[in-house]
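Priority: low. Protein: Ricin B lectin domain-containing protein. Input follows.
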Amino acid sequence: MYMYKLISFALVGAASAMASGLSCKAYGVAGNLVSLDFFHHDSQLLEFTLDKTVDGHPALASTQHSKQLFQFFSCNSPSKHYKKGGQVRSLMNTSLCLTPGTVYLPSDKMGDAMPYPENADNRISLQPCESEHSLQLRKQWFMETETNKAGLVQVSQQGWRSDSTSDTLIITDDGVALTSHPDKGTEPRHLHIKARV
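Result:
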């Protein structure tokens, strides 16, 4: 009887562990990460480099050439906190995901959304993909949007349902970050996956 209960407990534990993990599949365009303006005229190639790091992980930066390929992976929502979405994964190692340093919380006032965690390094890095409901998965949770150009999709950070969508890039000498609001007086640039030709 004791052995039966132990086996039953182990099976229930295994089932709940499987249920809490992510089920994801590759979806849409596979290609390079690029920064584009609204009209898709001004393009800047991006790649992860160890020349710049975030907590020891490669940081996203501007480059002239890149062989790094990425693709959006559509995943089941791990909890009711998440909208439909998934992760942007490296095709060289699909266990590594785009990981912004923050998500953005809507402002209580009419002002800009607020980064969370506060005072965190908001640059995008390449880190192990999270499969459990956590802040890390929240930061890695993206949505893909088709554009009117073949072989080009926009990706934007979704976080939780209650978070602001982050789809505007901030590009500096230290790396690339995402924000939910562009700086006043600058043309917004957005993150895309562009198929290699």
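Confidence is low (pLDDT under 50) at residues 1-20. The chain has one domain: 23-195.
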